[in-house]
């Protein structure tokens, strides 16, 4: 077989690889969902009891339902919805996440533009030269002349092994990761605002209750001192009451500080300085308890939580980068062509006989490079690390859901007990008040009954707020109604689209 036929067959083989070949390395497969039916090892209560108190309404966990995007509207007033809308527009953390996402998308576009299509450059130049015939062993005087040139160059690297396509796939997956980071930041921001608003309402009520307890204790101390003056009490009784009063008074400064700190945090979440403007004030009456809580099963949860989807995107990127490392072991074909004109004067630059051109093809095959196998092994190790990280994120998500479900279950039981205690203390106070009006008991006993009533109300307030906070935590644990852009709901991610192109 002569050399011309061999060259022809070789060229045909390269074209066959170009037209029918696919990217080297394994195509990405989404991880198998966890093979568990529930979140806890023992049966979970799905119907929470009713308590005869505010925020003691029944709640039912409904399995297999997907959350709505605006989940917080099921438990709050309009002013919280307005506050969240403002925060979604002004929060600097979200702005940074959005900018990072745009950066990732533009990096993908830049790499796609430089690898998927030929690169075309135009050039126009001129130079002044002095030529000495003696340098070539010729005789004659040295001459000076000008040389002008204009041309267009085209360059393209054929992606025979699919390395460029795998690199694009990796960049697309990292763009998806930034998308999920943004969704996670939004979810965290909304959950923080809801929790902070609930905490504000709880702290305000607790502060008011303690102030009432303090007033009652002051009246009790004043009455005791009067009784001591009349000889009906011992001085030690006043000292004991003074100690109790000051202990109650000492609770107010840290509680007020928590409330102020909470307000500062809420302002920053909305994207404002703490002293910039007044924010809405919330009370526990502003919130309602959602009657139904949609629970996703574990196999659906992995497609709904942004942290899990982000870990999956990183796994996808590592898989594609492993393919890039493999592709470096295969041949690379580079083609370049230049077409232009060259003349000694600008007038003759585009005239007849000034055309020049060149066509260059270069095939490069690594023969010995000990670093390439090591790079391949490093990429495989990075994939293994990403797979382990994905498993860790999934396990943490399952633990998070289990903790929240148990918290809701115990919150309901605790609120039921606190409600019963509050009801009992209320009836005890009413009885003491009737007896006091009839002269059957003293004002001193009435003050003690009032303090007991306020103390149970204080505990009840904390229990009501805790149930609301854990309800918000439940929505956050379920992914906050995030639509899975990695395949669910008929939406195809950038990484999946790039992978499909790579596998063709």
Tell me about this structure.
There is one protein chain. By secondary structure, the protein is of the alpha+beta class. Helix content is 59%, strand content 12%. It has 10 helices and 7 strands. The chain has helices at residues 3-20, 78-90, 92-115, 163-229, 235-269, 298-301, 306-327, 371-437, 443-477, 494-503, and strands at residues 47-48, 59-63, 119-131, 143-158, 292-295, 332-343, 355-364. The strands form 2 sheets. The chain has a 4-stranded antiparallel sheet, with no helix packed on it. Residues 1-20 and 484-492 have low confidence and may be disordered.
Compile the SSE list and pairings:
Blueprint: H1 3-20, E1 47-48, E2 59-63, H2 78-90, H3 92-115, E3 119-131, E4 143-158, H4 163-229, H5 235-269, E5 292-295, H6 298-301, H7 306-327, E6 332-343, E7 355-364, H8 371-437, H9 443-477, H10 494-503
GO molecular function, one term: efflux transmembrane transporter activity
Organism: Desulfococcus multivorans DSM 2059
GO cellular component, one term: plasma membrane
Structure characteristics:
7 strands, disordered N terminus, about 500 residues, alpha+beta, 3-stranded mixed beta sheet, elongated, Outer membrane efflux proteins (OEP)
């Amino acid at each position: 077989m002569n050399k011309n036929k061999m060259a022809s067959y070789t060229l045909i083989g390269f074209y066959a690889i170009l037209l029918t070949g696919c990217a080297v390395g394994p195509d990405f497969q989404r991880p198998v969902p966890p093979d568990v039916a529930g979140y806890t090892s023992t049966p979970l209560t799905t119907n929470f009891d009713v308590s005869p108190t505010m925020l003691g309404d029944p709640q039912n966990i409904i399995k297999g339902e997907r959350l709505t995007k605006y989940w917080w509207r099921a438990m709050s007033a309009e002013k919280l919805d307005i506050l969240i809308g403002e925060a979604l527009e002004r929060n600097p953390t979200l702005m940074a996440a959005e900018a990072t996402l745009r950066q990732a998308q533009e990096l993908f576009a830049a790499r796609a533009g430089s690898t998927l299509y030929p690169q075309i450059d135009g050039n126009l130049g001129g130079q002044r030269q002095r030529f000495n015939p003696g340098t070539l062993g010729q005789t004659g005087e040295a001459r000076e002349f000008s040389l002008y040139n204009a041309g267009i160059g085209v360059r393209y690297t054929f992606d025979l092994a699919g390395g460029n396509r795998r690199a694009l796939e990796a960049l697309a997956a990292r763009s998806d990761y930034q998308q999920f980071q943004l969704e996670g930041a939004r979810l965290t921001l909304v959950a923080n605002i809801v929790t902070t608003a609930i905490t504000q309402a709880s702290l305000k009520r607790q502060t008011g209750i303690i102030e009432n307890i303090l007033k009652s204790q002051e009246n009790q101390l004043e009455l005791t001192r009067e009784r001591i003056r009349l000889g009906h009490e011992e001085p030690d009784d006043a000292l004991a009451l003074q100690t109790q009063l000051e202990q109650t008074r000492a609770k107010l400064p840290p509680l007020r500080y928590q409330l102020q700190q909470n307000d500062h945090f809420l302002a920053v979440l909305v994207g404002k300085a703490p002293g910039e403007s007044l924010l809405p004030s919330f009370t526990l009456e502003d919130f309602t308890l959602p009657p139904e809580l949609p629970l996703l099963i574990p196999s659906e949860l992995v497609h709904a939580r942004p942290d899990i989807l982000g870990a999956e995107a990183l796994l996808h990127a590592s898989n594609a980068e492993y393919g890039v490392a493999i592709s470096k072991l295969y041949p690379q074909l580079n083609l370049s062509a230049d077409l232009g004109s060259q003349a000694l004067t600008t007038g003759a630059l585009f005239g007849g006989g000034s055309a020049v051109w060149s066509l260059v093809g270069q095939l490069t095959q690594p023969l010995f490079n000990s670093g390439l196998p090591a790079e391949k092994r490093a990429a495989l190790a990075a994939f293994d690390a990403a797979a382990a990280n994905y498993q860790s994120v999934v396990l943490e998500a399952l633990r998070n859901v289990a903790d929240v479900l148990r918290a809701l279950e115990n919150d309901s039981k605790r609120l039921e007990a606190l409600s019963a205690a509050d009801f009992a203390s209320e009836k005890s106070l009413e009885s003491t008040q009737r007896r006091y009006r009839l002269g059957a008991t003293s004002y001193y006993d009435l003050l003690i009954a009032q303090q007991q009533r306020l103390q149970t109300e204080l505990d009840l307030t904390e229990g009501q707020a805790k149930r609301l906070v854990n309800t918000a935590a439940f929505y956050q644990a379920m992914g906050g109604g995030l639509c899975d852009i990695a395949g669910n709901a008929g939406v195809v991610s950038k990484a999946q689209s790039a992978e499909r192109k790579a596998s063709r």
